[in-house]
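Protocol check, entry for the methods section draft. Step 1: assemble the input record (protein sequence plus ligand SMILES). Step 2: submit for complex structure prediction. Step 3: store the structure tokens unaltered in the notebook. Ligand used here: zinc ion. Step 1 record:
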Amino acid sequence: MKEGIIVKGYGGFFFVLSEGRIWRCRGSGRLRYEEQRLLAGDRVQFEPSGAEEGVIKKVLPRRNMLVRPPVANVDQAIIVFSLAQPEPDLILLDRLLVLCGYEGVEAVICFNKIDLVSPETASEFAGLYQKVGYPTILTSATRGEGIENLKGLLKDKISVFAGPSGVGKSSLLNSLEPGLSLKTGEVSRKLRRGRHTTRHVELLSVGGGLVADTPGFSNLELPPMKTTELGLYFPEIRELATGCRFPDCLHLREPDCMVKKALADGSLIASRYQNYLRLLSEIMQKERNYK
Ligand SMILES: Nc1nc2c(ncn2[C@@H]2O[C@H](COP(=O)(O)OP(=O)(O)OP(=O)(O)O)[C@@H](O)[C@H]2O)c(=O)[nH]1
Ligand SMILES: [Mg+2]
Ligand SMILES: [Zn+2]
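Step 3, stored output:
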């Protein structure tokens, strides 16, 4: 029996990376009923049935799974935003960070296209999120800047590259691993419009780890959660909230609210609080719709 990681499911086969090679596997009879649910990223045990073929006997327990893209055992999301063309949409970024927190996936922020802005602008954006506690890196795929830093984060991990369209996700991966030749630019977007399924996720070997490139998106619905839960996914608000008078403080107008206090004295970043409020009102709206 060998152990490996599914890198792709396609045409009824699962392609399993084990001992540095890809094995084309089928699910065993016993597994068949859950075959549909085997995902890229799943760790499996399989019995070789040929030099490069095998039968999957067992799926090891999952640590987590994402729905979009469908990948299991994700160690981290590399959230890519460009600093220009397109401009960074920070509410979308904060939404993604909330989603990662909710799914239990570590988030790393990558601000790309630093070649298009001043160094001051770049470090201002990075500073905002470093202050909150997220690992944040600055890159330029075209100039090859920051690429080594990015590479260093990927080793021995399963990572998902996520972010809006056109920010340079595929370009970054190409510059990390030139052999990949992922489609970039307009080409990528045209292909995407013509394609109806996003089921065929493939984990690529990049920088000593496995990476899923994903097509960009421009909006993202929050996962179902209670209003009191949202603050847990804003690390700086979660920390401040331990000092609020009420344990279920929503940091709106409650007395003795440490979040409002930090906002007033400037230690809480105003844009983050604004985005918290916007997401909170979305959750409230949904709650109202349920009633
Ligand atoms: N100036 C500059 N342009 C970049 C950089 N990285 C990528 N680009 C350009 O931005 C455009 C989009 O890059 P892609 O890599 O296709 O972006 P993507 O995030 O993969 O986009 P989708 O696949 O549509 O989600 C291309 O024309 C790239 O050449 C960068 O660091 N600097
Ligand atoms: Mg792309
Ligand atoms: Zn409060």
